[in-house]
Structure formats: structure tokens, C-alpha cells
Amino acid sequence: MHPKYRPDIDGLRAVAVASVVLYHAFPSVLPGGFIGVDIFFVISGFLITTIILQSLAAGDFSFKDFYARRVRRIFPALAIVLLVTLCAGWYLLLSDEFAELGTQTVGGASFVANLVFWGEAGYFDTAAETKPLLHLWSLGIEEQFYIFWPLLLGLAWRRQWRIVRVISGIAAISLLVNVATVHPFPTASFYSPASRFWELMVGGILACMRLRPPSHAPWRSHLQSVLGIGLIVLGLVMIRAIKAFPGWWALLPTLGAMSCIAAGPTGVLNRYLLSNRVVVWIGLISYPLYLWHWPLLVYVRLVENDPLHHSVTARIAAVIGSVVLAWATYRFVERFVRHRQTTGVLRGLVVSMLALAAAGAVIAFGIPSSRNSNAQLQAVANATVDADYYDGLTREMVGDQRVYKAGAGAADTFFVGDSHVQQYAPRALAVTQAFPEDTRTAYFATLGSCPPVPGVFADKNVDCPERRNKTLAFAYDPQIKTVVIGGCWNCYFLESGAVDYYFRGSDGVVHPFQNGDGIARSLASLEALLRDLSQKKKVYLLLDNPGGEHFTPRRLIQGNRLRHITAAPTTPTAPLPANQKQLNDRLLEIAAASGAEPINAVAALCKNNECLRTMPNGDPSYKDGDHLRLEFTRDHATYVDRVLRKSDPVRPAR
Questions:
Q1: φ, ψ for residue 442, nearest 5 deg
Q2: pLDDT tens column, 179-218
Q3: Considering 161, 313, 387, 512, which has the largest number of Cβ atoms within 10 A of its Cβ?
Q4: What would the 3-class secondary structure string for 338-354 be?
Q5: What is the pTM of this model?
């Protein structure tokens, strides 16, 4: 049994999908547009709960019919998009990218994409901009909700429980899980159904409340309509990707969507804005539009050979193409299936999805290879995943902090910092294996995006302060004779990367890095730390390696993915950015003033302001735009050997 059609709900769908598409295509125009997914969650929860409860009340609810309707609604467009995305991926992607797409296809076809991306997430994970099916995480959340929700409602109905109280209690638990995990476990909070189900349940609660005839007071509907749109607009304006989301911030779009739906079709903005014919039309194609837009944007970026930046014209073309494909999918696929309620069509949809999942599984194992899979391109692909820096080191605990040990004896050398320190762990292991009697045993204590500078904070990295405080305290331990402090200084202290960071001193006053004096105060704090440590032990300041988009391995790709591409080993260097040289010189001054000895990666990797980005064999020396790859640091980062060797090193480890 279906609820009466409401055009304003399709209008709300249009707001949701337009927000997401605009955010993905032009993130600076609508930086909070990703909350459109949360609006979708509320709509889905409301409609599904309404359908189930009305069927239960009429006595004709059937699990078989419920899931058959879900298959007819979700599978047709999804199957087409998965198939086209796979075919385009074979033609456009590199071998590693195509294998990753296979895994994504399995997740999308089996409705566990959120769990797949949750499992893949990590500091060195592939950029979101290169994952054509990343957006299917939200579909996974919804489908997992549909598995248990009818069972719960059916049980509550038969037992004559107070359904609103039951749902509200479960939703409250899910909301608390979300809030409790958004800081310590942000990836889990984002992808986990346990921390997302409450958003669908908000819609479910509203559906339960509207089983009784709603109030017909016009002023109440108008107020709810204005309040709902207002909360959504507030969320679009205030919420940013750098904020801890979902968390409490997710209440803005969810309560806004709930209020819009509660207003009914007569609410002033529901009637004149959300029920507008153009807006409703966008709502009708919102599901296929959501499915099509992200793969097109990803492939446009890759065709332009720039996953992070692409032309406005290309983005506009991708959005227009998404709308055209969405309309065609709605008109010729979804409506076709809707008017053919046969068992054969249903079986065909299920078989097609199983076939796509099987195809994705085979592709994930590298069969077949993509079109772009020659040896030179494979070398580029290999570089992008060459990042298991702690492989071979021994994992130990210092107090309650995890560290990694290179060498067999008692550790007396301590490397502390972020991933730009971690990348040298393979070199430490190689040196200890090559010269076991002449090597200091070293500990590595690192945390990605965590600057080893007292007083520096970033709201999104809530684990950093405790980790930094405890590891720096261990640096003062008498057991430690030598301390190496390093970090991605270019990430923190140059304007392009400073947006997330601020300095907070003992007085509690916040000094932002951007448009403030936070960087100057942080550099002073770093100098004070080095000076204090240098009075007690040998201290090295590990300077940053060159970085930027010209160092990423994929920049070695030449040509156009629509025609022919090749890797270009004839371009072994890239210019050192002027602002990085200035920062490097400033850090050299800090090292001299504090008594720390600098380890100058720029001096080792650059000559006449031209810096290596390939190894002697022509393969890329970087994993991405700013991390040196494991093979390079292991075999060629000899400039850190003086820290590791007891005697002056006279030859490299390999």
C-alpha cells in the first residue's frame, strides 16, 4: 500500500540532489552541499515507514512484496550505472584504479559500499576524487536499514508496542553513537550504519506520528515549512567538510527535512517552492541523477589528468550530462520496469546485480587488465600504493602509545612526527639490516597530520594533542639519546595547507594560521622545543621534502585518456616551489638558533631548484604529491643515515 503522492516531497528530493551535485561539481559555491544525503535519509525513512505501517494497518503487509518493490525501485538504474561505469573504467583507468573499481562494484552491487569504503579508509587511502563509486556508500546505509526496519516494525506492531517510543529510543542510541564517535573515530561515524540509522528513523518517527490525521491549522503548516527550509539553508551555509560531521551538525538537515515533510503540501514554501513543476521534475529524476553525477565528474577529472582540479566547462558539461542520463534512465528504464510487474523482470534484475557483483570480484583480482596497462603505466600505478612504511618493523608499546622499532637492541634514537617522518622507517630498517653492529636501534612514533609542535591544533584531528604530548614526553626519557623531530612543514605552515590549523597557548587564546599570527607563534614554539631538548641530548630537525601537484606520480602521465596515454620517464625533475624554499630556509635558521642539527631533504633531493621526482630507473620517487614512496626512501634516502649509524656512514645501505 503506497501513501498518497506528494509533489512537495519530490521537491525536497530536488533540493537534496541539487545540493549534492552542486557541492561535488563546485565545492566552493556550496561548501555544505553534502548534507543533501542527510535530507535523502529522512525522506527515505518517512516514506518507507509510512508504506510499512499503512500495510500493517490494512493487514496486507508482505516481506516478499516489500523487498520486491525495493528491487524494482533500486536495481534498474543502479545496474545501468554500474555497467557503464565498469566499461568506462576499463577504457579510462590505470590497472590499479580498475582493480579498485572492481572492489567498489562488489560493494555497490551487494549494498555494503559504506563498509567497503570504511575498510579502505586510512591516511594513505586513494583520494576520494578518483573513486567513481564512492557515492554509493549512502545507498548501502539505506539498504542495510531496509533489512532490519520492516522486521522491527512488524514485531512492534504484533506485540502492540508503542512504536514511537521504541523508534525514538533506538534513534536516540544511534544519535549518541554518532556524537560519541565523530571525534575519536570520524571514519566510523561517517560510514557506520549504527551512527547513521537515526537520520532515517527521524523520518520514521514522523511517519508514525502522522498515522493520526494531522492538524489542519494553516499557520502551523506555514511555520513548519519556513522553519524546515530555514534549517536546511542554515546547514548549507554553516556546515563545512572540515567540521566534525555528522555529529550534532547533522541535526540541521535532518530536522529541517523533517519539518518540511511535517508541513504537508499546503505549507507555504512546500506549495509554492517545493511543488514547482521544474523542482518536482528534478525530484523525479533525483535517484538516477545522484547515481550518474559522481562517476561522470570523476572520469572528467581523470580525462583532464588532474584528479583534484578541472575546468569549469568540463564540470558544467558533466552536470548537464548527468541530468540528460538521469532523465533517460527515468524515462526509458525506471518507467519501463515500473509498468512490467512480472516475476521474470524481477528475476532478471536480481541476476543482473549478481552478475555485476561477480564481474567486480573478478576485476578486483586483476582480470582483465584495463586498457591502460603497459609497463610504464604500471610503474606509475605501483608507486601510488607503495606506502606500507612500517612493514618489517616491530610493533611495541611505550606506556599506552604504539611505536615501531627498527633494530634489535634497546632503542636510543627516537623519531617523532607525522607521516613525513614515518616515510623514513623503511630506510631505518634497511640500515639496521645492512649494518646490524653499527646501527642505533630506533623508535618511530607518528600520527598522520599531527604536527610535533606544542600548541598546534586542528579540530578534525582530536587524537593529536594526547599523542603528541605523550610522545614528546618520552623524547625526554634518559633512555633516549637522540631525537629526530620532523613533519610535513609545507602542509602546516604554507597558506594552502594552513586552513585547518591554529595555535593555542597556555592562556587559551586561539591564533589561526590563516589571517592570524598562528604560524609565527607555532614556529617560535618549535624553536623553544628544539632548544630545550638540545640542552639534554642530540636533536635533529628533519626538514620537509619538496612536494606539490608536480611531484605526484600521475603527473608523469602524458596524453589523453580518451585516446592514448603513456608515462614520461624523460621528465625526472620538477621545480622547487618558491614558498617551500623560503620555509625551508626559515627552518634552517630555527635549527641553527636552537642548537638542533638539520637534516635537509631539499639539499639532498634538489639541485639548482630542480628536484627529483623519479628514481634512477625512471620510476616515480613519490607515492603522491608530498610523500616519498617506500622504495625510494629505503634505497636512496641516505641523507638520514647519519642519525642511524654509530660511525659516519661511508656508503649507502643498499
A1: -125, 145
A2: 999 888 888 999 999 999 999 999 999 999 876 666 667 8
A3: 387
A4: HCCCCHHHHHHHHHHHH
A5: 0.82
